[in-house]
Design brief:
Layout: E1 2-5, H1 10-22, E2 28-30, H2 41-44, E3 54-56, E4 62-64, H3 66-76, H4 86-115, H5 128-149, H6 162-173, H7 186-196
Parallel strand pairs: 1-2
Antiparallel strand pairs: 1-3, 3-4
Length: about 200
């Protein structure tokens, strides 16, 4: 078993943090996504979406997509429960994780990939107007998260979950995307300080 990743990319980091919270050790194989290796036939045969991370099981099964990889390890080792507990708890975690993925992480990714000239060979075509359009989308989502955190310790309630992992990685990804975090979001700042201090944040 191994995980193929580009360490600097946000989605592999989500998996590393998830595994660190679980206390699970998996070998990692580093590839440079900027080199175009993900577009080569050898990698495409494993993952036609040409993205990392990619979990390779010992039987040759390839599992792509960050949440799918994390769900695999959640099933293998249920505790601590990072996808929530019970029908209601799991649904709430899923709801917030998807909101954060689409509303914040994806918006930041679009801003980076469509505005950074170094990403032009990966994002074809680059549409600068789309990159700029995603910046206010990300800021608006930060406001929604700040309101959620006003009455909740973590993104999906009282317990730390994959939604917090996704959100922390997304907030950190705002910097390379050149999206300034509003200073007035005091609840978001309180949460960010707490989750960033967890040992897993350095994974």
């Amino acid at each position: 078993m191994k995980i193929i990743e580009t360490r600097a990319a946000p989605n592999p980091r989500r998996v590393r943090i998830f595994l660190a919270e679980k206390g699970i050790t998996v070998p990692f194989e580093e590839v440079d996504l900027m080199s175009g290796v993900l577009k080569q036939p050898a990698f495409g045969a494993k993952n036609p979406m040409q993205r990392v991370p990619l979990l390779m099981l010992d039987d040759g099964t390839a599992i792509a997509e960050t949440v799918a990889i994390c769900r695999y390890f959640e099933e293998k080792q249920p505790e601590p429960a990072l996808f929530g507990s019970g029908a209601k708890g799991r649904a709430i975690v899923e709801m917030w994780n998807r909101r954060i993925e689409f509303g914040l992480l994806q918006a930041a990714a679009h801003a980076l990939r469509h505005l950074n000239p170094k990403m032009a060979h990966l994002e074809v075509p680059q549409v600068p107007a789309w990159g700029e359009a995603n910046k206010p989308k990300a800021i608006a989502m930060l406001g929604i998260l700040d309101a959620q955190l006003k009455s909740n310790r973590f993104m999906a309630g009282d317990g730390y979950s994959i939604a917090d992992i996704t959100a922390m990685v997304a907030v950190d990804f705002l910097k390379p995307a050149r999206i300034a975090r509003p200073e007035a979001l005091v609840h978001l700042e309180r949460w960010y300080g707490e989750v960033s201090a967890r040992p897993s944040a350095q994974a």
